[in-house]
Design brief:
Largest sheet: 8 strands, mixed
Distance between the termini: 46 Å
Number of helices: 5
Number of strands: 8
Length: 163
Amino acid sequence: MSKHSELPETVLRVARLLESLGHDQSIVMLPASGKTSAEAAAGLGCEVAEIAKSIVFRRLQDNAAVMVVASGINRVDETKVAALVGPLGKADARFVKEKIGYAIGGVCPIGHLEKTVMLIDQDLLQYAHVWAAAGHPHAVFRLTPEQLKTMTGAPVADVALRA
């Protein structure tokens, strides 16, 4: 168990990975939880839409993790995602922790334990910068949508539920 003054192990793992990628932005520890997009945005003083939330599904054909990095204001359209990657099921907290390596509420778009099928919400591309979870509900980091695309290698897609 780490001391309170130290960063959680998952955050340290993300910090090391960001450093190895040459990312110049530090991880920010929010005083209150950033578990939801609204909480993170409130803590950062940004728009909810600028939060790059990670939504995880389970692909039925091979039990692979499927992550959609979506704008914080969007609901993910599971039908659109399934049309791109195959039929989906729900991913519970245990599945996410085992396949991705992070607890729900702090799921980072990089540094996964297993190969993850990924998609990036096209709506994130309209922002100069977005904020993503850094392995813990209180930890986030800032990056550009282009950096997100480069770091994840994920294609950009229309994944938002439209009214």
